[in-house]
Amino acid sequence: MAKGKFTTGKYDLVVRRSRTGRGLFTLDPIESRRCIVEYTGRILSEAEEYTSKSKYLFAVNKTKTIDGREKTNIARYINHSCRPNCEIDIWQGRIYVMAKRAIKPGEELFYDYDTEYFNEHIRPKGCKCSKCSPDVR
Ligand SMILES: [Zn+2]
């Protein structure tokens, strides 16, 4: 796999109001398969993985979890969708958000959160994504 695949693009990304609070939107068109942004944060110790109350934990693999709560990590604003336009790719212990298809300017970015997070935090309240709740505006 070429490293160039994981060079994040210089896309103009903005945080705006979305149907579920705040979301991350692109002002630029993004081609399919392009690397959009990296999900960054502090690597937690094993003890912290069990005690952290952060809502922005991201399990990179079995032994590495990142806390992406810092506001400089704009990828933290990307919401869940069951019909996403982005997907996660992990490469060399780092987390990248990739375009799953061509994305138009003004579109909100989404990826499919992992099942554990979905079952714990989203399913109990009901999923608000456009596929599950098409009437929510
Ligand atoms: Zn959904």
Say which molecules are bound, naming each kind only once: zinc ion
Average pLDDT rating: 91
Overall 3D shape: globular
- Unreliable stretches covering 5 or more consecutive residues: none
Helix content: 10-25%
Q: Treating each run of at least 4 consecutive H or I residues as one helix, how many helices?
A: 2
Radius of gyration, taken over Cα atoms and rounded to an integer in Å = 15 Å
Order of helices and strands: EEEEHEEEEEEH
Number of DSSP-assigned strands: 10
Give the topology, please.
Elements: E1 13-18, E2 21-26, E3 35-39, E4 42-43, H1 46-51, E5 57-59, E6 65-67, E7 79-80, E8 86-91, E9 94-99, E10 110-111, H2 115-122
Parallel strand pairs: 7-10
Antiparallel strand pairs: 1-2, 3-9, 4-6, 5-6, 8-9
Report what the structure shows.
The chain is mainly β. 10% of the residues lie in helices and 30% in strands. It contains two helices and ten strands, in the order ββββαββββββα. The chain has helices at residues 46-51, 115-122; strands at 13-18, 21-26, 35-39, 42-43, 57-59, 65-67, 79-80, 86-91, 94-99, 110-111. Strands 3-9-8 form a three-stranded antiparallel beta sheet, with no helix packed on it. A three-stranded antiparallel beta sheet has the order 4-6-5, with no helix packed on it. A hairpin with a 2-residue loop joins strand 8 (86-91) and strand 9. The mean pLDDT is 91. Bound molecules: zinc ion. Zinc ion (ZN) binds next to loops.
Quick gist of this model?
This protein has about 140 residues and is mainly β. About 10% of the residues lie in helices and about 30% in strands.
